[in-house]
Each structure stands twice: as C-alpha cells, then as structure tokens.
Fold this sequence. Notes:
The protein is α+β, with helices and mostly antiparallel strands. About 20% of the residues lie in helices and about 35% in strands. It has 2 domains: about 10-235, Rossmann fold (3-Layer(aba) Sandwich), CATH 3.40.50; about 240-360, CATH 2.40.50.100. The two termini are about 25 Å apart. Bound molecules: adenosine-5'-triphosphate (ATP) and magnesium ion. The site of magnesium ion (MG) has 4 residues, from helix 1. Adenosine-5'-triphosphate binds near residues 17, 46, 47, 48 and 197.
Amino acid sequence: MSTQTPRLEIRNITRQFNGRAVVDDVSLSVMPGQVTCLLGPSGCGKSTTLRMIAGVDMQDAGEIYVDGKLVCDTVFRIPPERRSIGMMFQDFALFPHLTVAQNVAFGLKGRAGDHTARVAELLEQVDMDGFADHYPHHLSGGEQQRVALARALAPRPAILLMDEPFSGLDNRLRDEIRDHTLSVLKSAGTAVVLVTHEPEEAMRMADEIALMRNGRVVQSGAPYNIYNAPKDRQAAAFFSDINVISGEVQGLTVDTPFGQFLTPAQPDGTRVEIVIRPQHLKIELDRNGTGPSPTPENGVAARAQVVRARFMGAESLVEFRMDADDTTLTATVPGVFLPRPETPMWLMIRRDRCFVFPQGLVTH
Ligand SMILES: Nc1ncnc2c1ncn2[C@@H]1O[C@H](COP(=O)(O)OP(=O)(O)OP(=O)(O)O)[C@@H](O)[C@H]1O
Ligand SMILES: [Mg+2]
C-alpha cells in the first residue's frame, strides 16, 4: 500500500439538477503523475464532475481535497483560481484578439516579456512552433486545440482537468500529441483527470479508468482489469462489440451449443448471459461434417455457417449463423482470412475469456 497523499481526492460528491442526481456519490483519487479517465456515454455526468473539481460549479454533497487539504465542501470553498487546477474543456475558447503566443502566456504571472522562452518551449511541445504570431481564426480546429493545451499547461498546474481534449485532431496527430502530452504531464507530476467517451483513448491514456453510468462510477480500475473483468454486460459492451449467448441455470450449470458452463451461485431457472468478445471466438474449417474435439480450454465446438465476412485491414469481421438455434455470432480473425458466405465452419469459445452474468444484471 502506498502511503503517498493523493494529489486530488474527491469523496462522495453529488450534484442535482431539478431534483435529479446527475452526479451521484462519486469518489476518486489521483496520485501525482497519474491519469484517471472518466469514461462513459453522453450525459452520464463526466463534465459536471470536472466542473465541480475545477470549482466553477459546486456539489450538493461531498468534499474535494488537493494534496490532502480540503478545497471545497458544502460550506467551505476555495475559489477556482486558487486551486492550482488547470482546465481544458470541451468548449475551450482562445482569445480571438490575442496571438497564439499571447494566448499561451495569458495565465502566466509577471511581465509578458519574461515568458518568451517558456511560451516557445510550450509551443514546441504541442508541435506549434512557428505559429507564435498567428491569430486563432487563422488556425484549424486541431491547431487551436493544441494552443489551448499549451495554454493550460503554461502555469504548471498541480492538477489538469481535460474534457475530450483530443477529439478534434486527426488520428496520426492525435496519437503523437496524446503520447507527448502524457510524458510532459508525468514528468511534471501533474495529476490528470481526462474525460472521454472513447474506450480506446481511455485505455491508451489512463492509469485508472472510472467507468460512469447515470451519474455513478460503476467500475474503476486499471484498463487491463476493467477490460478483462467487466462487472456487467454493459461494462463489457462499452469496450468492444460483444456476443451474448443466453441460457437457463440447471444445477449450477447452463447448457449451450458450446457445452456446459458453470454458473456459480445462481438458483435453478435463472436466465444467464454468457458474454464473449469477437476476438475470443476460435474458428476451424469443417472437415466432412466433423469438428475439432472438445478441450478444457475451448469447450465443445459448435457448427455454424458464414453469413458475411468483412475485410477490415488487420482483421476480418466474420458473422456466423449457428446451426443449433439460428442465432448469430461475430468473430474477428486475422485479415488474411476472408471466408465466403455459406461456408460451414466450427466455432469454439475461449472459456477463460467468457463472462457469465445473470440476465438483466446492472451494477449501480
Ligand atoms: N446546468 C445544468 N442544468 C440542468 N441540467 C444539467 C446542467 N448541466 C448538466 N445537466 C445535465 O446533467 C447531465 C450530465 O451532463 P454532463 O455534461 O455532465 O454529461 P457528460 O457525461 O459530460 O456528457 P457528454 O459526453 O455529452 O459531454 C445531462 O443530462 C445534462 O443535461
Ligand atoms: Mg461532457
């Protein structure tokens, strides 16, 4: 256990609008140099959470601490500008009448002339050197975004709050700027809360992901853990397409075309869903109607026909119709393989990659 004090800690914060809790009992802590991603669908309360941490909105319950010191509860409140918190919001706005360099220098104390070196360093970090004297309306959306990032980093905040900061950038630039930004923030010991609704972005950036739904954190943990041990079907589905095989519990197991699955602690008659990601379906060619033998790792093979196969570059997406019950399942396979429709094949599922949930289970 680390005894370090979190740079940022929020405890049980709640925010209501018109009697509805849009942020509901959320707690988080972020260590220096760590990135926590708030990940969740539109409207789940991500930006509202950030606004309370920044101090531009106030919670109805709960407390916020920076380096172990209370900055805000429901009676006491340190104003936003004294929290050492930098912000880069979804609707960031550069000052139109200031040049790029003046925008970046805006939050720095002292005389404008003192900041030339720092501004140049920041512009280089975001790959915008050469634009110092340009005005915002001459920049593309992505360029403006990078200037806004430099402006947020300029005062070396202890905590940086970022709301979808990379959404306007094209792919190549985005990966480069993300990685670069991360290394700058990590070396400065900045604690980052990054809001995104893209799982790939969260997995790439985060030390910890807090998965939000309806104002609550439903699961949090390292990207690896949250991807490989989702709490419910929706949490699994947030990170990739999923296949769902339904069945009913009898004697602690459920029968499926892929053999029996254990269903710990569910009474007989409970409907359960076995969830499996497309890359964990294994496929084999049909050899005169016989399939591969059952194995403990992959269970029983079940026969299916290709409905369609789509080439996606590195991989192909193959949709199957199961012989047993006409349901469809999707597998991703290496892109060199692109079977024709109606090809009979055998499917197996990786037992160790399945998640079994009671049907309708939703974590609150
Ligand atoms: N000032 C407000 N008054 C009333 N309702 C609000 C207010 N601010 C936010 N809401 C509501 O709170 C909910 C959460 O909003 P929030 O902006 O935090 O969502 P989000 O997770 O950031 O979504 P997105 O990914 O679309 O940006 C939404 O239903 C929104 O309409
Ligand atoms: Mg938002």
